[in-house]
Amino acid sequence: MIASVSRRLVGLSVLATCLGASPAFAAPARSVQMGTTFGLGTGLHHTLGSDAANAAPWTVYLPIQLATLRLEPEIGVRSVTVSSEADGDEFTESATVFRLGVGVSYTAWLTDAAIHVGARVGFIRNSGELTMTDFWGDESTYEFLRTDLFLSPMLGAELYLTRALSLGLEAQLETVFAGDAQVLDPDGDLETTKGDRTDINTRGVLFLRFYFI
What is the pLDDT of residue 57? Predict the structure, then answer.
């Protein structure tokens, strides 16, 4: 009986030692300060502002940690299709928002957490088409395209649950510089409207990040 209990205690001790030695279960933030770490993350966004409808709510992030410097490329996509009817005509609008950028920030390390201060910069590509079907079934399609630039000062906090997994929150004050809007009508004529609008949005982001090394 005593020998059996002893063997189990030894087994648990060996398991605990292995987990403690594994990078995924080591002391979280302190263990990544001195080296280079990269990972994969995702974020859910909530945007307040005049351009909130164009925000990509789901984004993939590639965090690269170099001691106190973080580089974080991001890519986000959103597709929406809306149908409506008015005066016997049917309207179908489909739009895609593609977001590509990179974040650069300074990292202040805590025991098992980190604070990030920096900015994100990139572009947002808005494209889509509007199809109108009249009472007789005739269709007219308009295509549109616009590319905007964004600059987002940000402040974020990250809690390391393990060496390889973290949760984060980030607040951004995003300025979007609208680009020229191009519309292609059913006759093949291209009309360009010069972009002269600047939107300021407040964005909140909830992160989940996984680190490989």
Answer: 62
